[in-house]
Specification:
The complex is a heterodimer of chains A (167) and B (923). With 167 residues, chain A is mainly beta. Chain A contains two helices and nine strands; from the N terminus they run E-E-H-E-E-E-E-E-E-E-H. In chain A, the strands form two sheets. In chain A, strands 3, 4, 6, 7 and 8 form a five-stranded antiparallel β-sheet that branches. Chain A has a three-stranded antiparallel β-sheet with strand order 1-2-5, with no helix packed on it. The two termini of chain A are 43 Å apart. The C terminus of chain A is likely disordered. Chain B is an alpha/beta fold and 923 residues long. Chain B has four domains: 304 residues, Glycoside hydrolase 38, N terminal domain (7-stranded beta/alpha barrel, Alpha-Beta Barrel); 104 residues, Up-down Bundle (immunoglobulin/albumin-binding domain-like); 184 residues, Rossmann fold; 173 residues, 3-Layer(aba) Sandwich (Rossmann fold). In chain B, the strands form three sheets. In chain B, strands 1, 2, 3, 4, 5, 6, 7, 8, 9 and 10 form a ten-stranded mixed β-sheet that branches. In chain B, helix 26 links the parallel strand 19 and strand 20. The model of chain B has no long low-confidence stretch (mean pLDDT 92). Classes of the chains: A mainly beta (167), B alpha/beta (923). At the A-B interface, strand 1, strand 2, helix 1, strand 6 and strand 7 of A face helix 8, helix 9, helix 14, strand 10 and helix 15 of B. Chain B: One of its GO terms (cellular component) is extracellular region. Chain B: Keywords: Carbohydrate metabolism. Chain B: This is 1,4-alpha-glucan branching enzyme. Chain B: Pfam families: BE_C, Glyco_hydro_57, Glyco_transf_4, Glycos_transf_1.
């Protein structure tokens, strides 16, 4: 017979409002949530709606979060994947319910930035920076960017490490 | 001179699998197999190379869990027993094969190997750290480490967790190798923005990422992966060369798939009769790999030919030559287009060599010799490379990993996503405990340290990896549940102030790991270190029209708290400000040099003229200060009132100018309606134009500044305001009660339309209808009070609305203590410091979803955000919190924690220093 500390189980419920979103890859996010018991009980009979917003970055654009997905949650759902999103954007999810023609928002997730899927196409100013803790020596100017090599690298990506999705 | 460099990196890691509490645990064999097949053969290769004076360089990453197992005496003992048993089997096998015409040549093959392995192991006194350390001292190996339990960093939620995974690993490494590692192997090459800051905090010089981590960085890397890039924090990121990877890793086209190499999936543990092999299998019957494999890959079909060691060795030599030639060709090609010696980084899991790819150590041996003999190719370690090229292209890396798909999906998918709720909850709880026990005594300290160990062990990337890969799933699930379960037991014991010694002892005995761990690494505030980009100290000239004791709005408090925090961070801060009753023209106030303008200089009656006099006085004062104290590094101005002086001082003294714009005239008045407002707007525009960098206190303000003053986004930074949570008394945790008699809704602030009190009064009837009797306490003064009073009258709620007038800090704290819920229904709110004060006081909050308030509250987690101006929705949220006191208490607890961790001045000073560094860089 195992000692009880060697056969522990996970708590079913933490009795707190949590809604956490994580980036899966440049087009997918995952989120999970839990509502405090009191609130969950009150909402048991309700149809809950899950919304996903595209959130503009803090200083670069002036516009409100844009609703890009909305769906009715099947009962007892506690996590979700949103696929086919636009890479290199910020997202936030929300759960709420429809009440007398109004949307009553219950909880929002953290905001998640999903990474870009491709190299940057446009040229930006190149700066050089010394590595901290290293003695700085003069670095010469770039003779010619090796764009074709970067391109090749990207194209060969599906092959390496047996991470070929198709294999 | 070489044309280019090869940086070979081997990453050695196994999860901590050690069960002192029982013998014969199947999974302990992972470590034994690793020793026999991989670590000892590799060490043997290194020794042979050294003996033959081959000049080789390999970067070897050893995980803290592997180091722990390599140095654990009980495991060393158990390994010898395991080896002895294998040797017994090898003797039987020699006899058996001697009579087999097809496999006769392999009789004794494994016996010889195992005897040699045992000799080497005993020769090193069973401890591999000594010879490895020697190889490092001789310059052949650069040994680095990885995170404490190989936790997958991009899916953790807190910086404290990053710190704990990294710092405890570095400490353990230092304990064994008597030095700090130069670089780190991020588990699964998992990188997320911000990690570089933590690495810099711990003096880490470099890390590795996968190819696309470099290729997709911004700006695009001009050298591709043939050189590292340098992150914002000044840490070098080396990218994996995909060609080197493909040749070794790829199952079809890679070297390990050669038909002459040993077939991994034919093992006598499965092939032979149970009566014969049973005694060497776990439990006498469980069919597992024994390591005795006699076939070669042959082809794709099921038929396998006998293994021919000589032919396989010859292939390994040939493949090493091929690898070397290909690297050379690749690097020569790259060298033609870049003006430095290109680098190919070839990282592999160490366990590939010998375990999965039996001939891997031979290949490595031949490769090192081949490269050493090739004049135009040389092996380097990352440190050597950075010594030659310390300056690299500045680039920002996005989140990436080397797992399938290149991001997080191997560790986050429907098979294993269920673990994260528990991990994140434990991370959060661990930090809360560390904050709660700044200096724990015994036995709390032991309990906290063990909780930290259990969390770290639960975070091991191996559990979601194994669960997803589908082998040994039960073991991984059990381990995960046990670590989370034990963490919860320990945290509960601490929360209940009842530590059961027996339980604590039992849990400790299961995971003897990281003996020197200090749970305080989990404190949310982090170490008091300056940001990586900032110099050790700046001399800052701070301009603010008000400074305590003179306080009109929140500005004085902000400049004071920021200045004190900067002084604490090591900077010298001089504030020039207005005269104040009872204050000399110079004072040293909590380390801040406060210089006040002579009262005689400020004679004007007209406000704008008075402002001009103030600014003139500031310019003169700045000149004098330079004479007395020497030159400054920058000027930091707060709002338009000091804008003219800031611009002039910045020009005259040639100093970068940082401007914090706390609010705008346009925003305050919702437009510009008269000449004065237009004039102030023009002063604000001028300040924004002249500033090198602008700070706004919320995302909303950042956007407003960019739009109103037509400023580029890259000049703007958002840094929230802070609050001294300690100065605000937390409301005692009121028992959750539905008692209707004593419920108060509290508002604090100026009584002006933009604060939205009218919306709250309009919501009151609906709130009362939903929850019963409730009182609204309105603290503050302002021109809008008469309108608000008549509104309450008109709605028939005047009896329940109490205008309590202006309150000082003490009265504010008392009021917050009495609040059931605090409401800030602003229509315009650049930041909303008062919301932070209510959060710090532990009062549940409903605030408008506008301006800076949006950045403060996490909707539905620590408070509610309601659409501005919508009385119905406001009533709905306020009622929800009054009706559901348990939920309100959850919010309040969470809010108090968030305010302490996210809006503390130390954090804000650190973010401000980053802006200073950038402003100085730009000028």
């Amino acid at each position: 017979m195992l000692h009880y500390i060697d056969r522990l189980e996970l708590p079913q419920w933490y009795d707190e409002n949590i809604m956490n979103m994580m980036a899966v890859n440049p087009t997918t996010v995952h989120l999970y949530w839990e509502l405090a018991f009191g609130q969950w009980k009150a909402l048991q009979q309700c149809i809950l709606v899950l919304n996903l917003y595209d959130v503009p970055s803090s200083v670069s654009e002036e516009c409100e979060p844009r609703l890009i997905r909305s769906l009715q949650l099947p009962p007892y759902t506690e996590n979700w994947y949103f696929n086919d999103l636009q890479p290199a954007r910020r997202y936030q999810a929300e759960i709420g319910r429809q009440e007398d023609q109004r949307f009553y928002s219950i909880i929002k997730s953290n905001i998640v930035y999903i990474p870009p899927a491709t190299p940057l196409a446009t040229t930006q100013e190149i700066k050089w920076r010394p590595t901290a803790n290293q003695v700085v020596a003069a670095a010469g100017p770039v003779r010619q960017p090796i764009k074709e090599t970067v391109q090749e690298l990207t194209e060969s990506m599906s092959f390496y490490m047996g991470i070929n999705k198709a294999s | 001179m070489p044309a280019g460099y090869l940086c070979l990196v081997l990453h050695g890691h196994l999860p901590l699998v050690h069960h002192p509490e029982q013998t014969g645990v199947l999974e302990e064999r992972w470590f034994f197999e690793g020793l026999t097949e991989c670590y000892l053969p590799l060490l043997n290769v290194f020794s042979a190379l050294k003996t033959d004076q081959v000049n080789f360089r390999i970067t070897l990453s050893l995980s803290p869990t592997l180091i722990t197992m390599l140095t654990n005496e009980l495991l060393q003992e158990r390994y010898i027993e395991h080896l002895q048993k294998s040797i017994t089997l090898a003797r039987l096998e020699r006899e058996r094969l001697s009579a087999d015409p097809h496999f006769k040549h392999l009789a004794g093959f494994y016996l010889d190997k195992l005897l040699e392995i045992k000799d080497i192991y005993e020769g090193y006194q069973r401890n591999l750290i000594y010879p490895l350390k020697q190889l490092q001292q001789q310059g052949h190996l650069e040994i680095i480490t990885t995170c404490a339990t190989h936790g997958y960093l991009p899916l953790m939620t807190s910086r404290a967790s990053w710190r704990a995974q990294i710092k405890t690993a570095l400490d353990l490494y230092a304990g064994h190798f008597d030095r700090r590692p130069a670089g780190i192997w991020l588990p699964e090459c998992g990188y997320a923005p911000g990690l570089d800051e933590i690495l810099k905090e711990y003096d880490i010089t470099y890390f590795f990422v996968d190819t696309h981590g470099i290729a997709n960085s911004r700006p695009a890397p001009v050298y591709g992966i043939f050189a590292p890039v340098c992150t914002g924090a000044g840490v070098a990121a080396f990218g994996r060369d995909p060609e080197s990877s493909r040749q070794v890793w790829d199952r079809q086209g890679g070297y390990p798939g050669d038909p002459y190499y040993r077939e991994f999936y034919r093992d006598i543990g499965y092939d032979l009769d149970i009566d014969y092999i049973g005694p060497f299998l776990p439990g006498g019957h469980l069919r597992v790999d024994t390591g005795f494999k006699y076939h070669r890959i042959t082809g794709n079909g099921p038929h396998k030919e006998p293994y021919l060691p000589g032919a396989a060795r010859e292939r390994a030599a040939r493949h090493a030559g091929d690898f070397c030639r290909r690297r050379l060709a690749q690097l020569e090609r790259a060298a033609r287009v870049i003006n430095r010696r290109p680098l190919a980084v070839a990282p592999y899991d160490a366990e590939l060599f010998g375990h999965w790819w039996f001939e891997g150590p031979w290949w490595l041996n031949y490769l090192c010799r081949e490269v050493a003999a090739t004049e135009s190719l040389a092996m380097v370690t990352p440190t050597e490379y950075l010594q030659e090229y310390p300056e690299n292209q500045a680039a920002d890396l996005a989140m990436c990993s080397w797992g399938a798909g290149g991001y997080n999906e191997y560790w986050l998918n429907p098979s294993n996503d269920w673990i994260y709720k528990h991990l994140h909850r434990a991370e959060d709880r661990m930090s809360a405990l560390a904050d709660e026990y700044p200096q724990a005594g015994e036995p709390e300290k032991r309990c906290l340290n063990q909780a930290a160990r259990e969390l770290l062990l639960a975070q091991s990337s191996d559990w979601p990896f194994i669960i997803h890969s589908g082998t040994a799933v039960d073991y991984a699930v059990r381990r995960f549940k046990n670590h989370i379960g034990r963490f919860n037991i320990l945290a509960d014991m601490l929360a209940n102030h009842s530590i059961h010694e027996g339980t604590l002892h039992d849990i400790e005995s299961r995971s003897r790991f990281l003996p020197d761990i200090d749970y305080r690494i989990y404190r949310s505030s982090g170490p008091a270190k300056r940001p990586a980009c900032a110099r050790n100290s700046y001399r800052i000239l701070m301009l603010s029209w008000e400074y305590p004791p003179k306080t009109v709005g929140g500005l004085a408090r902000h400049v004071h708290d920021l200045s004190c925090a900067l002084v604490a961070a090591g900077d010298e801060v001089h504030v020039i400000t207005c005269p104040a009753a009872g204050k000399d023209i110079f004072s040293l106030d909590q380390g801040v040099y406060v210089h006040r303008i002579h009262r005689e200089l400020l004679t004007a009656e007209n406000f704008m003229e008075w402002i001009n006099q103030l600014n003139d006085g500031m310019v003169q004062a700045a000149d004098r200060l330079v004479e007395v104290f020497g030159s400054f590094d920058l000027v930091h101005a707060h709002d338009w009132l000091v804008g003219t002086a800031a611009g002039e001082i910045s020009d005259r003294l040639r100093l970068p100018l940082v401007a914090t714009i706390h609010a705008t005239e346009h925003g305050r008045n919702r437009g510009l309606h008269n000449d004065l407002q237009r004039h102030i707007h023009s002063l604000e525009t001028e300040l924004a134009r002249r500033a090198t960098m602008i700070i706004g206190c919320s995302g909303y303000m950042g956007r407003e500044i960019a739009r109103l003053f037509n400023q580029p986004a890259d000049k703007l930074r958002v840094i929230p305001n802070g609050v001294e949570a300690e100065s605000i008394l937390s409301a005692p945790n009121k028992p959750a009660t539905k008692d209707d008699s004593n419920r108060n809704i509290v508002f604090l602030g100026r009584l002006v339309p933009e604060k939205g009190v009218q919306v709250l009064i309009k919501a009151l009837p609906q709130i009362q209808q939903t929850v019963g009797p409730v009182k609204l306490l309105i603290a503050g003064k302002g021109p809008y009070q008469p309108e608000l009073e008549s509104l309450a009258e008109g709605l028939g709620v005047a009896g329940q609305v109490d205008f309590v007038g202006f309150v000082n800090d003490d009265a504010r704290n008392r009021l917050l203590c009495e609040a059931t819920v605090a409401v800030f229904p602003s229509l315009y709110e650049p930041f909303g410091i008062v919301a932070l004060e209510a959060m710090a006081a532990g009062v549940p909050l409903v605030v408008s979803d506008t301006g800076g308030l949006r950045d403060v509250i996490e909707h539905g987690v620590d408070g509610y955000l309601t659409p501005p101006g919508d009385a119905h929705m406001l009533a709905r949220y306020v009622s929800e919190l009054i009706k559901n006191p348990e939920l309100a208490q959850h919010f309040a607890r969470r809010a108090r924690r968030n305010v302490v961790t996210k809006f503390n001045w130390r954090q804000i000073a650190s973010a401000t220093l980053e802006v200073y560094a950038e402003a100085i860089n730009r000028t």
